[in-house]
Write a structure and sequence with these properties.
It is a single chain. With 173 residues, this protein is mainly alpha-helical. It is 56% helix and 0% strand. The protein has a single domain, classed as Four Helix Bundle (Hemerythrin (Met), subunit A) (Up-down Bundle). The longest helix is centred in the C-terminal third of the chain and has 23 residues. It holds the Pfam family UPF0149.
């Protein structure tokens, strides 16, 4: 299964367990930049991964590896939407929210994997993941921060924050 076939599957009615392609990109990005998530495929399919074909799972793993290789080559991950202020839909129904929800889902999908458990990096992780949490809309306590200007700033920081998170979790510096 190639990447386009995977996207077609994720966007289809046949995909009743996993995320759509935009949210999947966010989810996979989090699995690449953050702490290792050993059971990410199970989390992606909400524990029902046994019901998903191996070809779909293999295609997801290949996509995840592609994202990892991009960051490892010191290139930014290309986001699956235009994050510019003029182009982006900041509603809860837009691609930006879907991507951020996917990212945050992966970030919190395993209670044994805590991105915030190191007191030396806890504050950095909080600052770098703030855009994802805010843009996802999952934290009602942040609703007062969800004005257009703040959301635009958060959207514009995503690519750099993704790279910074990768460096934070995957380098010794």
């Amino acid at each position: 299964m190639n990447k386009q076939e995977l996207f077609d599957y994720l966007a289809s009615d046949a995909n009743q367990l996993g995320l759509d392609p935009i949210a999947a990109h966010g989810f996979l990005t989090a699995t690449v930049v953050g702490k290792p998530l050993p059971n990410w495929i199970s989390a992606f399919f909400e524990g029902a991964d046994a019901q998903v074909s191996s070809e779909v799972k293999d295609a997801l793993q290949a996509w995840q590896q592609e994202l990892y290789d991009t960051l490892k080559a010191e290139e930014p991950i290309e986001l699956p939407f235009d994050a510019s202020e003029e182009a982006e839909d900041f509603s809860g129904e837009g691609d930006l929210a879907a991507w951020a929800i996917g990212f945050v889902d992966a970030m919190y999908s395993d209670e044994n994997v805590d991105w915030f458990d190191d007191e030396n990096t806890e504050e950095d992780v909080a600052m770098l993941t703030l855009p994802m949490v805010l843009l996802s809309g999952i934290d009602p306590e942040m609703d007062e921060m969800r004005d257009e200007e703040t959301l635009a700033q958060m959207a514009n920081s995503l690519e750099d924050n993704i790279t910074e998170l990768f460096l934070l979790f995957h380098t010794d510096d």
